[in-house]
User: Fold this.
Amino acid sequence: MSVPQITFHDGKQIPQLGFGVWQVENDQATPAVEKALEVGYRHIDTAAIYGNEEGVGKAIANSGIAREDLFITTKLWNDAHKAADARKAIETSLEKLGLDHVDLYLIHWPATVKYGDAYIEAWNAMQEFQAEGLATSIGVSNFHEQHLSALEGAKPVIDQVELHPTFQQSELRSVLAERGIATEAWSPLGQSKDLQHEVIARIADEHGVSPAQAIIRWHLQLGNVVIPKSVTPERIASNFDVFGFELTGEQMDAINALDEGNRLGGNPDTADF
Ligand code: NDP
Assistant:
């Protein structure tokens, strides 16, 4: 079965299930992304700071898949929010990826502790990149409501935020839904920690699937864009094999009850990087 698409407010679409490559070395990224493309993923999520855009680009080139059938996201790092730096950053990312445009370019963090409101300058630059065709759609990551409110001009199409069963971001998800901004879940498996939860294990058993498949299904049924990462070929394949079963209302409710405010990454309001 094909991957559902989420339609952005700018009319473009993103495959709801993608493949994340944070903490994947550049040379490891090539075989991992090749495997992902082989089993059917068409949406890859990287970032300048991951240091693996070249490795991702190699896999894209090797795949022979038509460019229009791929959805590639990369991200602007925090130290490049000034307009001239942002331009250099997107040009460098595109060169490393071997592409003339990305499908989605994100401001990685608001980074207000270190760089004040420079993210607003970055947002203005991103709108130019979009107008020039360097990025088809533009969005943000790790933005809270006050950061979204401060943006001028175009509205971001998506906000990529930490979101997994033990950290569910219900309030932020409501804010994004009200604003017509898609929600994308990073660390969707809780960096593998949420896989151990007994409720997840019970639900996975009920369907004869893995805990990761159960969690990915929960994200899909909530409406999140979801980008699990793995460098393990069997997991890359099984994490994509999530369209042959559906969680019941009871199972969705049981996972919805697991939120513990268990943040694993930085808090966008206080992060000092
Ligand atoms: P995930 O929640 O995707 O978990 C990845 C971990 O789970 C890895 O240790 C992986 O192991 C393991 N794993 C994956 N599948 C399975 C499985 N089926 N069974 C058991 N273990 C499994 O963590 P990430 O933090 O990587 O988040 C996903 C993506 O989100 C990132 O790669 C990145 O693209 C994005 N992200 C964005 C951020 C942002 O600030 N915008 C911040 C963090 C992440 P192994 O690889 O060894 O198989």
The two ends are 41 Å apart (CA to CA).
